[in-house]
Amino acid sequence: MALIEQIQAMVEQYPMILFMKGTPQWPMCGFSSRAVQALQAAGADRLQTVNILEDAELRANLPRFSNWPTFPQLFIHGELIGGSEIIIELLEAGELQRIVAEAGQA
User: Fold this and answer.
1) Could you give the number of structural domains in the chain?
2) CA 76 to CA 95: how far, in whole Å?
3) Has residue 78 been placed in a domain?
4) Which of 40, 59, 92, 103 has the highest local Cβ count within 10 Å?
């Protein structure tokens, strides 16, 4: 299976998935750390994550798949939501809590 198809399968398999640098316990950049903190503050307790630092090919191809150049990248129900700035904006607007609950991740 081509890598783009594998990415598509991952974003379809999980209601909510965050492609990030590091892990929620050990984020490897400030943006990934802030994204995880915002998602946890919104009640996401079953967050599926992928450490893009473990797979150079995934790290290179995910921006092509999503048409989003930076990490982290949050997908909900197969749709790109955005990176840490958008995640934080959604949290501050009170929308992230609803999105997390609707994704069944709370």
Assistant:
1) 1
2) 13
3) yes
4) 103
Residue 21 located in a structural domain: no
Is residue 25 a known part of a binding site? Answer: no
Torsion angle, CA of 79/42/28/85, rounded to 10 degrees?
60
Per-residue pLDDT tens listing for the chain (106 residues) = 699 999 999 999 999 999 999 999 999 999 999 999 999 999 998 889 999 999 999 999 999 999 999 999 999 999 999 999 999 999 999 999 999 998 886 5
DSSP states of 34-87 as a string?
HHHHHHHHTT--S-EEEEGGG-HHHHHHHHHHHT--SS-EEEETTEEEE-HHHH
CATH number at residue 69: 3.40.30.10
